[in-house]
Amino acid sequence: MSDLLDWARTSPVPMVLLTLVGYLLGCRLRDATGGHPLAQPVVVAVLVVAPVTALLDVDYRAYLDRVSLLSFWLGPATVALAVPLHRQAHRLRGFVMPMLGIVAVGAAVSVTSGVLLVRALGGSDVLQRTMAPKATTTPVSLALSESLGGIPALSAALTILVGILGAIAGPALLTLLRVRDRRARGLAIGSVSHGIGTARVLHEDEVEGAFAGLGMGLTALLTSLLMPALAWLLFTRL
Fold it and tell me: Is 48 found in the same domain as 95?
């Protein structure tokens, strides 16, 4: 029995299978509930994977190493988001400059508000640096957190949490605020909840999904470019 547990802890096979099964269950639940906001495949996968890894005493870094095969395919999957965007390229006319401006402002607001919120609540300097890159994709969040002196694993967890909350509540909130333009809705979801939100809206509307993928990529890029100046301002001048 102990040999089996050791194999489950150290071999990548159980973790990869566990992750795939969790995500598949999430897809089945989403389809069975007619796309209910709470029935997000990522949420279900987390609820399946987290207790099992905790029971097996597998920490986040070890789990990430075990599922590196799946992580590798996130790159091609992200690049593939260019396909629906190419189909909607005509919708970019007259929209490029306003889009770049608002995404840049949104990235700056995301970083600044996250840092100042932690500071206002009495959080440490390290926690503030950890919170800063929360709206980028998980790989970018890990890299930025490490460069800022934060806690990369916690940044990744915060990034995933933000993505889940955005995917669940984002579309309903935009509808409540009477945001009708599919391009604007997609950019908002992708910029805030990155890949998790993009996966949801792409399943529901191709235009929203295409612009969500664009918003996700632009937010990661612009946050990375703006982060040195924002870090200097937030941690040196303020």
Answer: no
